[in-house]
Amino acid sequence: MEKYTAAAEKYFNKLDENAKSQAIYRKLLKWHCPEEKKDKAKSLFKKMDHLNFLDSKTPFNDMTHMYYHMKQLDKVKEVYNEIEQRNISRE
Fold first, then answer.
1. Which among 64, 60, 82 is positioned nearest to 73, based on CA atoms?
2. Best label site of 32, 48, 53, 77, fewest CB within 10 Å?
3. What radius of gyration, in Å, describes the C-alpha atoms of the chain?
4. What value does the mean pLDDT take over residues 37-56?
5. pTM of the shown model
């Protein structure tokens, strides 16, 4: 799966900034989280925040699942707290 993530990231990096939509950022985040590429996932998550792409639960869920599988339960709690602070519905 790692080679597919590398290919997706290479494609993403070649895109013009105007072509990088919220959906594309979400897909790339989904590719990084299952592989537990924490640094890349966190960086992408911050970039999505800067672009105001964190308006739904989906990217938060991706991060939560990554941290859970890495057994970093303190980080899971931090993500849930951020969801609450932003008043994002968990449904």
1. 64
2. 77
3. 13
4. 92
5. 0.76
